[in-house]
Amino acid sequence: MREVEIKFRIKDKPALLERLADLGCQLTPAVEQDDQIFSGEPLPDGSRCVLRIRTTEAGSILTLKKDITNELDCLEVETPVGDVESAKRLLSELGYQLSVRVRKSRRQGKWNDWTVCVDEVESLGSFIEIEAMFEDGEDADQEELCRLVLDQLKMPDIERVTQGYDTLMKQTGQVYIEGKE
What we know:
This protein is α+β, with helices and mostly antiparallel strands and 181 residues long. The protein is built from four helices and nine strands.
């Protein structure tokens, strides 16, 4: 599957939540997510590939994200993980190193055919992500998705972000250092 997402930094979270409710988007209660992001060398075709182990109270999932046009437009493959420590060792043996940890509280819902995530990210603030899933080979237009969302949200106080949380954390100097949490 191909995941195309757009992301916005939120300045007025209560207003956004009210607007989403007006649009018929019902959000789940918040779920705590602890994402460990592993980075490696670029692939032979030059694309960026990251691996993530996401842990919630429901369990852990290993996700591969391979950039297609940018880091918010990527091939995504997921599988459950029963033993996180063994998964981390496997990734290390493959040359991937834990580079950043992202902790967040996420509320999720459906709006139109999109998945909506309202996140409170530790050290970064509040965000909304709109995710659309496409079959491999299906045409996906990130800019058109952005226009559709902005036209319907009508929220003047949001700022588009074109990087993943891992990149935003690295830009603020918040990288993983062994033994320090």
